[in-house]
Amino acid sequence: MSYNLLKGKRGIITGALNESSIAWFVAERAVEEGAEIVLTNAPISLRMGKINELAEKLNTIVIPADATSTDDIENLYTKASEHFGGEKIDFILHSIGMSPNVRKGREYNDLNYDFFQKSIDISALSFHKMMQVADKMDVLNEGASIVGLSYIAAQRAYPDYGDMSQAKAVLESIARSFGQKLGEKKGVRVNTISQSPTVTTAGQGITGFDVFVDFADMLSPLGNASALECADYVITLFSDLTRKVTMQNLFHDGGFSTAGISHAMVDRLSK
Ligand SMILES: NC(=O)c1ccc[n+]([C@@H]2O[C@H](COP(=O)([O-])OP(=O)(O)OC[C@H]3O[C@@H](n4cnc5c(N)ncnc54)[C@H](O)[C@@H]3O)[C@@H](O)[C@H]2O)c1
Q1: Assuming Cys at both sites, which of 49, 55, 87, 167 could form a disulfide with 17, CB separation 3.0 to 4.6 Å?
Q2: What is this structure's pTM?
Q3: Could you list the residue ranges that cross the membrane (predicted)?
């Protein structure tokens, strides 16, 4: 259902790889809510994924950008501004994560440090870079909203989430520090959403991911939040209904983050 929550707004959506990507749902919902968007992803993901199909469906363009490259980000904003007829940007979704260590199955006590730096650069510093370049180029509208996607492994230890735990902790911290800066300067909001485990390409790269999903679902009184439900939450943060929400890490997880044990787990574990 559409409420026209983003009517007249323009935004950039990163990270839509295929129809299971959280960003894919956000892009579809943003357009449904009346926004104009441009899509972007790393050049290699453009070749592997289905983003062009999404662009066609939503009648928009794809601007390739490796989010670790400030040159690519500059080009992204220049082209996006052209597409928007010189108008500024009202929202940005950062939906980017990748750890070479996790992808190659490296144990936490056997990490490759070049990979570790890549994980942090791709999954966290890219968030800073997108905001720093946006600030320097002055492409953000007054009151714009920037959202990054996080996971509870930033706060708790998970055996196979590897160096992504550190990347998410950095991501959440950047939201606070840059949120303060951009808030004072332009009333811009910056938040992260800590989402339930969700079956996507990035999610499935983690060993034992199906167990993460089942465990979280069993513990959460409302059950796991789906990618579409995550997109709905992102839309509220892009909208004018949340103008004073900033510098937060917002759990969108069916109650998982504050649940101790559930009846379902007691039943499952009872001898
Ligand atoms: N799936 C989950 O369980 C889950 C849970 C909480 C948070 N998240 C986070 O949600 C975000 C989106 O992930 P997803 O689950 O939709 O998976 P996904 O694999 O569909 O999306 C990850 C995206 O990151 C992009 N990317 C990787 N390297 C890049 C680079 N250098 N430059 C630009 N883009 C790059 C990929 O192309 C891909 O589109 C990630 O930050 C992820 O950590 C996912």
Answers
A1: 49
A2: 0.98
A3: none
Ligand 1 atom nearest 197 alpha carbon: 3
Indicate the number of domains in the chain: 1
Kindly report, residue by residue over 15-43, the tens digit of the pLDDT: 999 999 999 999 999 999 999 999 999 99
For the annotated catalytic residues, the residue numbers are: 151, 161
Question: Residue 199 is part of which domain span?
Answer: 10-269
Does 5 fall in a domain? Answer: no
CATH of the domain at 46: 3.40.50.720
142 inside domain: yes
Task: Establish whether residue 198 lines the binding site of ligand 1, counting it when its CB lies within 6 angstroms of any ligand atom.
Answer: yes
> What residue has token string 């994560």?
97
Cα 236 to Cα 4, 173, 198, 232, distances in angstroms: 11, 22, 20, 7
Q: Say how many Å lie between the CA of residue 123 and the centre of ligand 1.
A: 8
